[in-house]
Amino acid sequence: MRKQLYNVGAILKGLSITFRFMFAKRPTIEYPSVKKQHAPRFHGLHELRRYADGKERCIGCELCSSACPANAITVIGAENTPEDRKSPGERHAARYEIDELRCIFCGMCEEACPTDAIVLTPRFEMSDYKRGALIYSKDRLLVPADAGVGAAPDERPNGIPGDLGRVAEIKSTTDIERGYSATNRGEILKKQTRGLAILPPQREDV
Amino acid sequence: MPDWLIILIKSAILLLVVVTTFAYAMLAERKVLGWMQLRPGPNRVGPWGLMQPAADAAKLILKEDLTPRTADPLIYRLAPFISLLTAFSVYAVIPFGASNAGVWAIGTPNAGILFLLAITSIGVYGITLGGWASGSKYPLLGSVRATAQMISYELGMSLSFIGVLLLAGTTSLDGIVSAQEKWWFIIPQFVGFIVYIITAVAETNRVPFDLVEAETELVAGFHTEYSGLRFGLFFIAEYVNMLTVSCIASLLFLGGWNAPFGILPMVPGVVWFILKVAFFMFFYMWLRATLPRFRYDRLMAFGWKVLLPLATLNLVVTAIIVAFLGH
């Protein structure tokens, strides 16, 4: 009998809990209409950036491709010609493709890139009806020529040194060619851009 | 106007009211369940999700109406209509209120409550035949459970009515309500009320007694094979039955359209009745959000070893008191 009464008490207690919860604050974020502020260092869709003068940052070195743990990146490089310089280096990426379905959004490509060409933006809504549509090539990855330089990773405050706003302040490719750094993180920048700085301006003159 | 025309108009209005109530009871249930589980509930269709029932109806009508190859086609197709028909025909005798013009009901037979019990007993056929005729194992198990469960709990339910009938001295529903003008029968018949509330949940196959459609064991129980509108009909029947038992609880135990302690005489009786029914409907949703499902043997043991003796005891005590003291 006592056990039965205890059970009745337990049911009443359960009812009181559910009743209280009816008026509790709900944690639901009604996603398409309300979007949550994501973490500052969120890894989303890739973007190929440009320099401020419009040249592509990517030099077709394929380091991203070899760093990629998911083998999601295909890069085919090509020589720049004096008439048509796509990037400040000798080479540029003739083709640059990322299979966003294979990608694990780890950011290793971003780490590996010597010119900060490939960055992961916070964009994440890229679902589609066909698998082929999720192989992003240069036409979708590269920042359009009239749309600025692209999302700098400097939206990521306080973190690993050199990971932030690395080359954001570099005004144009000539800055790099002079080996000139205008950033307050010049040390790292110099180290990173030194390889690039080798590229001799005189080659252009040939 | 001829009598038959008045009854036809009354029925049409009542049908409309009951179907609308079903639609919004379903929405309310999903909302309440959502809130109790820290979700917002349906809110995409229309403002505050108010068009959700229409969207659901459109979906169910447009879906394909499947009949399994092993099914008995005639009975399979007929079963949902049996459930629906019995669920609706109960409203022929349920009174909703009273004014100087008379009682608000399609019919007020002397044996209203007996008619009610008889009709709700037929309701089990819809479920049993539907599960049986599906020609599939889960529906069969569901319908076997339904038969056993609904028959077992109907005993306790009927016995819990008799206490009220003894006190009121009548079997007409409006007579029972007018007998409660001073005291609601929940006070002298508290045990009967508790037994009724529990058995009513079991009769409508709702949580925690929803073994008939136990998702975790039987996929969807008796209506596993049903799709489209036929599934919808079972669904309507379930909610209309829920509404029915709520109405009966209000009529028999909470004084129907009588205001509590005669307060607020200007409020029409039907408002009180709706409030009481709404409370019971909410109570069902509340239970569903709170309690887990019974184990089958415990369900049977509870019905036969606890509720039935309790109802019998209540009946005997009430009968003795009524015999010695009068109504």
How would you sum up this structure, described in words?
The complex is a heterodimer of chains A (206) and B (327). With 206 residues, chain A is an alpha+beta fold. Chain A has a domain at 46-160: Alpha-Beta Plaits (2-Layer Sandwich), CATH 3.30.70.3270. Chain A contains 7 helices and 5 strands. The termini of chain A are far apart. Helices cover 67% and strands 2% of the residues of chain B. The model of chain B has no long low-confidence stretch (mean pLDDT 85). Chain B is an all-alpha fold and 327 residues long. A two-stranded antiparallel sheet of chain B has the order 1-2. Chain B has one domain. At the A-B interface, helix 1 of A face helix 1 and helix 10 of B.
Can you describe this structure in just a few lines?
By secondary structure, chain A is α+β, with helices and mostly antiparallel strands. Chain A is built from 7 helices and 5 strands, in the order αβαββαββαααα. The termini of chain A are far apart.
Question: What is the secondary structure topology, with strand pairs?
Answer:
The complex is a heterodimer of chains A (206) and B (327).
Chain A: H1 2-22, E1 46-48, H2 63-67, E2 73-79, E3 91-99, H3 108-112, E4 118-120, E5 135-136, H4 138-141, H5 173-177, H6 186-197, H7 201-205
Antiparallel strand pairs in A: 1-4, 2-3, 3-5
Chain B: H1 3-36, H2 52-62, H3 73-89, E1 97-99, E2 102-104, H4 112-133, H5 137-168, H6 173-178, H7 190-203, H8 215-218, H9 228-253, H10 269-290, H11 296-325
Antiparallel strand pairs in B: 1-2
